Amino acid sequence: MWQALIQWFSPAPPLPEKPKSEVDALYPKLRYQVLEATFLGYTTYYLVRNNFSPVAKEIGQALSYTKLELGDILAVSAFMYGIGKFVMGALSDKSDARKFMAVGLVLTGIINLTFGFVEGYSIQLFLWGLNGLVQGMGWPPCGRSLGHWYSVSERGTMFAIWNIAHNIGGGLVGVIAAYSASYFGWQYAFFIPGIISLAMAFYVFMRLRDTPQSMGLPAIEVYKNDFPSESTHTPDHEKELSFRELFVSNVLLNPYIWLFSIINFFVYIIRYSLIDMGPTYLKEMKGANLESGGQSTLIFEFAGIASTLAIGWISDKMGGRRGLASLLCMVPIFFAFVGIILNPPGRLWLDFTLFAVIGLFIYPPVMLLGVAGLDFTSKKAVGTAAGFIGLFGSLGRTAQSKGLSYLAHHYSWDVALYSIVISTAIAIFLLAFTWNLRPKA
């Protein structure tokens, strides 16, 4: 049984290369199709991952959970998501992206539906941790697909376009979850996204394709005549790697991957502080209601769309200096958090504006750190490298979920927010060491 399952998930085998006329007609169509399917699929992953935070306060009231218990549910999900992103990243490098991503959507959809039907802290803690693990099946197949269908010189731009899925999914989930809970009850914040996820799984399975070679097309470097270097494109360049090559050579012994991973730890603390705790903070300290709390997430997420596109394109024009572009984005974030702390209650519009500033500048680094993982490793190891970088990001989210809830509960929201200011300063310091790094030659 296991052998049959492994065989079913295995990368789609290469087909004989088609004539040039067919290649020229089919390649642009399939590149768009891959971008579209991964974009919509990953947008949906957000609907069934971040739907707890917008209704956390309401779940706590309905089920008598404390702030620390709610923080634990978020923390276990974030921790398991990090584990899932790393483990599933390695598995995705040895799998057909189409099947891998679709199955993940089915599993997370089922978990969400189950979560809405049950009550009880222990079972919900278990289910949301399991959901975090399954969510690791989202990003890696997307990275694998884009790495195979788009070349190095267009990577920043195309990943930036794809990365908008984070913003759209993250923005919509706040509104969908909040309004579903407001009109029907907190359970519908999980029922409705769960149904959407099951439907999207079918769509992804029908539209996504694995590698160009599996469709009878040449490698993207050949098609675009865009090689990273003469030394990296060899007859073995398209060979699938062993688990040892994936983990050891391309990740564990790669100092660049370690550096970007540590930076990602702090970037995720910053990013998820406003996603996980932002709505609750605005409700408790600034007078926001359930709907406006959900709107804050929408504002935060959508603010990053234009900047992600612009900074991704700029990083390509800067010769792939993702670290420098990320560094420039972190400075205004530092001052925006200070502004949120100093802004008194009664000026919710200013909090929304500062949320938008942070969203505007945090998403380019989130995107670029993932692209940097691909820049400094093999495209055959992109899932593993991205999973490793993502593991550190999820550990950052875990630390944020536990840390902010603890600081807010035992001290004050101001103390919790000052910890985010410190994290931002550390990220700026570490990014200073990457400002001149370019994709490996």
Give a verbal description of the structure.
The protein is mostly helical and 441 residues long. Helices cover 76% and strands 0% of the residues. The protein is built from 19 helices and no strands. The chain starts with a helix and ends in a 10-residue tail after the last helix.
- SSE class: mainly alpha
Distance between the termini: 43 Å
Oligomer: single chain
| Uncertain spans | 230-235
- Strand % is under 5%
Task: Label the overall shape.
Answer: globular
Radius of gyration: 21 Å
Number of helical stretches of at least 4 residues: 19
Q: Specify the helix fraction band.
A: over 70%
Could you describe the largest sheet, including whether it forms a barrel?
none
Order of helices and strands: HHHHHHHHHHHHHHHHHHH
Mean pLDDT: 84
Number of strands: 0
Topology:
Elements: H1 2-9, H2 20-47, H3 56-63, H4 67-92, H5 97-117, H6 121-135, H7 139-149, H8 155-184, H9 188-207, H10 220-224, H11 243-252, H12 255-276, H13 278-285, H14 290-302, H15 304-317, H16 322-342, H17 348-375, H18 382-410, H19 413-431
Helix pairs in contact: 2-5, 2-7, 2-8, 2-9, 4-6, 4-7, 4-18, 5-6, 5-7, 5-9, 7-18, 8-9, 8-14, 8-15, 8-17, 12-17, 12-18, 12-19, 13-14, 14-17, 15-17, 16-17, 16-19, 17-18, 18-19
Give me some keywords for this one:
441 residues
Summarize the structure.
The chain has about 450 residues and is mostly helical. The chain is built from 19 helices and no strands.
